[in-house]
C-alpha cells in the first residue's frame, strides 16, 4: 500500500508546555487532574501513555484532541497556540486533523458498518463529502471487513466493532490518531491484531499515533512510553517497561496453583460424603420385619447383623423387639 498524505496537510509537532488541568468539585473544592505536563510528539511517532484508572490519561488525550482545554500552560500544534483558536476553528481543526478510537467503540446503533464509518465525512467539504460511502467501504476493506459492509453493530462481534471504530477513525486520513484503551475490551489475540492494524495503517499514511493504555504489553510496542501518575507525566525507559511487563506475567502462574488446591478440596469433600453415607448405614443397624410371625415362640429375627452396643444391655432395634416379645409371652 502506498503512503498517502493526510487530507489536512503535512503532519506537524504536538507540544505541551507545563500543561495543567484543574476541575471544580461539588463541595466547592478543586482537583488537579494534570500538573505541569511537558510533552513533545514528533510527526509520525508512536507514543504510549500508561497509568492507573483515574490518573488523568483520558483528560490528557482530550486536551491533545482539542476536546478539552488546559487551565494552565500551553498546547501548541505546529507552533500554533490552541488557546488562540476560536470555537469554530478548533472544531474544524479537530475534524480535519484528528482521529479518535474510543474504548467503548461508540458506534451508531441500527446503522450499517458503512454508515458508521462514513459518518465523520458528513462534515467534510468538497470531494470527501460526495465520496464518503466509497471511502468508507475502502476503509472497511483495509481492516478486513469488506464482507460486513451492511452489518449493524448488533450483529458484529466485539473485535469487528473495534475494527469498525478503527476504520471510522482513519477514513478522513487524520494527521493524528488518538486511541483510548484500543484493546481494553478485547481478548489478547484480537487486541494484538488491532494494534498490528493501527501500526500498519498509520505507518502507511504517516500518521502520528498516541495510545492511552493500562496494558504494558501494548505500551511496549510504541516508540516511546510515558507514565502518568497523579497528574504527573514521566518517561519510562525500555528496562522499566520490560521489567514491569515481566512482573505482570509472573502472577499468572500463581493464579493457576489454587485451581489444583480447589480440585483436591473437591476430592476431599467427596470422600467425606462417602464416609458420612457409610456412617449413616451403620447407624441404621439391623432391619427387622415386625409383622413377620414368630415360629415356635421364637423372637422376631433381625435381617441384618445387630450393631455394636445393641446386644446385651444395649438398646438397639433388635433388643427393643426382643423386650416386646418377652412381655407378650408373660402376659399370655
Element layout with pairings:
Layout (H helix, E strand, L loop, with lengths): L13 E11 L5 E12 L4 E5 L6 H8 L7 E6 L2 E2 L5 H11 E4 L11 H6 L8 H4 L1 H11 L15 H13 L5 E5 L7 H18 L2 E6 L2 H4 L4 E6 L2 E5 L1 H12 L1 H34 L32 H15 L1
Poorly predicted regions: 1-8, 249-260, 302-313
**Assigned CATH class of the largest domain:** Alpha Beta
The CATH superfamily of the largest domain is: P-loop containing nucleotide triphosphate hydrolases
User: Order of strands across the biggest sheet?
Assistant: 6-7-8-3-9-10
CATH hierarchy: architecture of the largest domain:
3-Layer(aba) Sandwich
Order of helices and strands: EEEHEEHEHHHHEHEHEEHHH
Outline: extended
Primary descriptors:
single chain; 332 residues; alpha/beta; Rossmann fold; 11 helices; 41% helix; disordered N terminus
Report on the structure:
The strands form two sheets. The protein has a six-stranded mixed β-sheet with strand order 6-7-8-3-9-10, sandwiched between helices. The chain is 41% helix and 19% strand. The model is unreliable at 1-8, 249-260 and 302-313 (pLDDT under 50). A hairpin with a 2-residue loop joins strand 9 and strand 10 (232-236). It has helices spanning 57-64, 87-97, 113-118, 127-130, 132-142, 158-170, 188-205, 216-219, 238-249, 251-284, 317-331; strands spanning 14-24, 30-41, 46-50, 72-77, 80-81, 98-101, 176-180, 208-213, 224-229, 232-236. Helix 5 (132-142) crosses helix 6 and helix 6 (158-170) runs parallel beside helix 7 (188-205). By secondary structure, it is α/β, with parallel strands linked by helices. It has eleven helices and ten strands. It folds into two domains: 14-249, Rossmann fold (3-Layer(aba) Sandwich), CATH 3.40.50; 255-331, no CATH class. It is extended and about 120 Å long.
Amino acid at each position: 500500500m502506498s503512503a498517502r498524505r493526510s487530507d489536512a496537510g503535512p503532519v506537524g509537532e504536538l507540544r505541551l508546555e507545563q500543561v495543567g488541568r484543574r476541575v471544580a468539585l461539588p463541595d466547592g473544592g478543586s482537583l488537579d487532574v494534570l500538573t505541569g505536563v511537558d510533552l513533545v510528539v514528533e510527526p509520525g511517532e508512536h507514543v504510549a501513555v500508561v497509568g492507573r484508572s483515574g490518573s488523568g490519561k483520558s483528560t490528557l488525550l482530550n486536551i491533545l484532541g482539542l476536546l478539552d482545554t488546559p487551565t494552565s500552560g500551553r498546547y501548541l500544534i505546529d507552533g500554533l497556540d490552541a488557546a488562540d483558536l476560536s470555537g469554530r476553528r478548533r472544531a474544524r481543526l479537530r475534524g480535519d486533523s484528528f482521529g479518535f478510537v474510543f474504548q467503548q467503540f461508540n458506534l451508531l446503533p441500527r446503522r450499517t458498518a458503512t454508515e458508521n464509518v462514513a459518518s465523520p465525512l458528513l462534515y467534510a467539504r468538497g470531494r470527501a463529502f460526495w465520496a464518503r460511502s466509497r471511502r468508507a467501504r475502502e476503509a472497511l476493506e483495509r481492516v478486513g471487513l469488506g464482507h460486513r459492509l451492511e452489518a449493524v453493530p448488533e450483529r458484529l462481534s466485539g473485535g469487528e466493532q473495534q475494527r469498525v471504530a478503527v476504520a471510522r477513525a482513519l477514513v478522513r486520513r487524520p494527521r493524528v490518531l488518538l486511541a483510548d484503551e484500543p484493546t481494553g475490551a478485547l481478548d489478547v489475540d484480537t487486541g494484538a491484531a488491532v494494534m498490528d492494524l493501527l501500526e500498519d495503517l498509520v505507518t502507511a499514511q504517516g500518521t502520528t499515533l498516541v495510545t492511552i493504555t493500562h496494558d504494558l504489553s501494548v505500551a511496549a510496542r510504541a516508540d516511546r512510553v510515558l507514565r502518568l501518575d497523579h497528574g504527573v507525566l514521566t518517561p519510562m525507559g525500555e528496562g522499566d517497561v520490560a521489567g514491569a511487563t515481566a512482573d505482570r506475567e509472573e502472577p499468572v502462574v500463581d493464579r493457576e496453583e489454587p485451581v489444583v488446591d480447589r480440585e483436591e478440596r473437591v476430592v476431599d469433600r467427596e470422600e467425606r460424603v462417602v464416609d458420612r453415607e457409610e456412617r449413616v448405614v451403620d447407624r441404621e443397624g439391623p432391619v427387622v420385619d415386625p409383622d413377620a410371625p414368630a415360629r415356635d415362640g421364637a423372637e422376631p429375627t433381625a435381617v441384618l447383623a445387630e450393631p455394636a452396643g445393641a446386644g446385651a444391655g444395649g438398646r438397639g432395634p433388635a433388643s427393643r423387639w426382643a423386650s416386646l416379645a418377652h412381655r407378650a409371652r408373660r402376659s399370655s
